[in-house]
Amino acid sequence: MTGNRAAFDPALPYNDLPPLPPQQELETAKVLKAVIEARSELAALNTACRLIPNPEIITSTIPLREAQASTEIENIVTTNDELFRAHWSVAPEPTPATKEALRYRDALRRGVELIADRPVSEKVATEVCSILQGGQATLRSAPGTYIGDPVQGTRAYTPPEGLDVLQRHLSAWERYIYSDHGLDPLVLMTVTHYQFEAIHPFYDGNGRTGRILNILLLLQEQVLALPVLYLSGTIVDNKAEYYRLLLAVTAGGKWEEWILFMVNAVTESARSTSSLIDELRSLQDATTSRVRAAGVSPAAELAELLFVQPYIRITDVIDAGLAKRQTASMWLSQLADAGILEEQKAGRSKVFLNTAALEVLTRR
C-alpha cells in the first residue's frame, strides 16, 4: 500500500486509482465483530417490516427521510416537513432544495424497480443519476472536476479523468461486485461505495447515486427486506467523519476505519429505523382505537390509510374505496373534531393532517 499512497497527489487526477480488492485484509476481527452486530440489527429491522400489516405505511414515508438526509449531505437543505408537504402536494411550489430531495425519492424508487430485473451495475447507476439530475447523466469527459474549496482553490481530491479511464474503472468496479470476493454483503457495500465515490463518474450527483446504490445492494443481497434503511440520517450526523474517512482510504489506505464507520452506521440506522417502525405501529393501534371511539367505522382500515397518507384529503378516502364523498367528508370532519386530525386549507381544498404520525416521521 505504500506505493499507492506515495502515488496519490490531491492536485492530480487519480487515474491510477487502485482497483478492488485492496492488498490488505478487509474483514479483520474488529470488522467481523461489527458486521455480526449490524446483521443482527438488520434482522430485527426486517422482522419489524414484516409485522407492519401494510408495508406502504413505511415505504411511502421512511424513504422520504432518507431523501432529505442524503441531499443534506451535499449541502442541499430542506426539512422533513417541507418534503412531506411537497410529496403529498399540500404545499405551494417546492423550493429548489425540496425538488432535489423529491428527485432522490424518485431515483430510489426507480432503482428498486430496476434491480427486480437486473443487477446493480453501471447502467443502474446511470439511470439513478439521470433521475437525480433531471436529465440524462453522462460520464465526465471534460477535465476540471475536483473535491475541495473552490474559493481558496485548494484540492483534497481530484478524481480520475478521461472517458476511457472512467469506463475502465467502472467496469472493474462492476466486475468486482460479482467476483468471487467472499465478502459479507455489508463489507462489500462499504468497499464498493468507496470505489464508486473515488471514481466520481458523473458531473453531478455522485454522492447521492452512491448512497442509493448502497440501499440497492443490500436489497439485492437480501440482507434488507424493504428500502427503509435510514442510512443517510446517520451519515449526515457524522458528515465530517464520513468525508475524512473516505479521503483517508485514498491517501493512506485506511480501510479498516472506513469499513467500521459504515458498518456501524448500518447498525445505528437499522436500530433507529426499527424503533421508528415500532413507534408507528403502536401509534397506528392507538389511532384505530381513537377512530373507533369517535364513532367512525371501519376504524382499522381508515386508521391504516391515515398512516399511508398522513396528509389526507376526502378524495384519498374515496380512492381507497372506503366511502363516497359525503361520508368521507363527514368522517374526516369527525376525526378533526375529536382531535385525531388537524384540518388545514390547501389551495381551494381541505387537507387533514395526522399530526401524531407526522411528529414521529419528521423528527430528527
UniProtKB/TrEMBL annotation:
The keyword Transferase applies. Residues 1-21 are annotated as: Disordered. Residues 120-264 form the Fido domain. Transmembrane segments: none annotated. Keywords: Nucleotidyltransferase, Transferase. SUPFAM superfamilies: Fic-like. GO terms for molecular function: nucleotidyltransferase activity. InterPro entries: Fic/DOC_N (IPR025758), Fido (IPR003812), Fido-like_dom_sf (IPR036597), Fido_containing (IPR040198), SoFic-like (IPR026287), SoFic-like_C (IPR048770). Its EC number is 2.7.7.-. This is Adenosine monophosphate-protein transferase SoFic. It comes from Corynebacterium jeddahense.
